[in-house]
Please model this.
Amino acid sequence: MAQFIVSGLTTGSIYALIALGFCIIHNATGIVNFTQVDFVSLGGLMMYTFLLGMGLPLVLAFAVAVLVVAGVGALVERFAIRPAKSRAVIILIFITIGVSILMRGTFKILWGKNQMALPHFSSESPLIIFRAAVLPQSLWILSITLIVVILLHLFFTRTRVGKAMRATSFNSRAAALMGVNVNRMIQFSFALSGALGAVAGIIIVPITTLSYDIGVMLGLKGFAAAVLGGYGNSVGAVIGGLTLGVLESLGAGMISSAYKDVIAFTILVAVLFVKPSGILGYGEKERV
Amino acid sequence: MLRVENLEAYYRGNRALKSVSLEVRAGEIVCLIGANGAGKTTLLNCISAVHPDWSGIVSFEGRDVSRAASQARVRLGIVQVPENRQLFGPMTVEENLEMGAYLRASRMSAADLKREMEAIYDRFPPLSNRRKQLAGTLSGGEQQMVAIGRGLMANPRLLLLDEPSLGLAPLVVREIFRIIKEFKQEGRTILLVEQNALGALAISDRAYVLETGRLTLCGEASALMQDHRVRSAFLGQQVTG
Model:
């Protein structure tokens, strides 16, 4: 049981990071950004290139990979979202789906179709905690996620730009009237989501494998986690991610690991049917 | 101080403003009165550069700012307090005020920022013990105080006030108008948009009347208050409700 919970929290952390990425862009623009899944893949792929291809030290490779993906996020906003003639949410979502497929194709050309592997950050021999065998990488994942969530919270509540991003998400017209460059805030939100996706990809890949489309399944589950927590709610994103991870892990352990994905998406469908606003959602606004 | 020439604006494909020209001189309170849908808010949004579809010339202190983006205009001191407050509801009163100083905050010391914020609390005492309260949970009058305070934090040279009395109780309206008069005594320049024509004319130096996108009358506020067209169109309307 403890074993399942630990492994559930580990993957759940990844879902939480990805869900936060979905959430930040949703709050800035109202859209679902499907390139989020490719930010995850690209994080792992960049880590592979910087760490193994160029031989950078682990910490540096990690930092550079995250920055590169953040930059790619900013470029996606600048060249795919901002020039779009329509501001209609559905059109912008279609654009992100198109860009996502384009990105995946590019990754396939650049990194090939083969599976790759990244080393664990430290030892690979499991530690025994509460009668559960825990990989040190799991501890890395849990602690890095915790740090990221705390930093993100401080960013949004303590810094000038973080507050401006929140203000923009609440009322972009009013933010513009205060002199906030709304386009730049949207671009920041893409960069930030890129960074979050990259972190998720980089820390999970050592215990899975790496391929050009590794982020797709993880990303869709991150999306499910965001829906479960209440789409657009950042606290909900974290709770949803961890809950989904644990439920999935328990279900896989008690039923069959072959049904892991089925369990996750059954939860997604069930949430959408029964309580579409998710755990922390405020309920759909009444249409007048 | 502010000069608008031949401004035309489109709203959802329709021409919402037709060749509007107006002027606000330094130290004046100028009010813009007109019925709902006349284009008053659109005009302010063009002056603030947050309306997407417009043409014409806007100049500020002799400089043509027609092509300047909204943040550049705020930096010059053209600051709008928008209709319906438009606070950042899930943020605290303090954070809302901070957002007002968004462009200045990076060049100001924390102590100066704090001092200016205290000045806002002095001006609006009901806010001073609600600093950590979420702005969306305040009463209408308090929200309007936060909205005006947020505008003041931008250190405006020209304050554009859009319907500051809308939806407020008569007593609160009187207080808001008193504060606007105070601004004039402090030497601030104000362009005031109001449906409450009587209240607005009473505190203004000059006024413009906007009807379906066109300026139809302008003049001294005291003269307009006596004008039979204004009386029948706006003041009469208020008597009969």
Chain A touches chain B at residues 160, 163-164, 166-167, 170-171, 173-181 (CB under 8 Å). Chain A has eleven helices and two strands. Residues 283-288 of chain A have pLDDT under 50 and may be disordered. The first helix of chain A runs from residue 2 to 29.
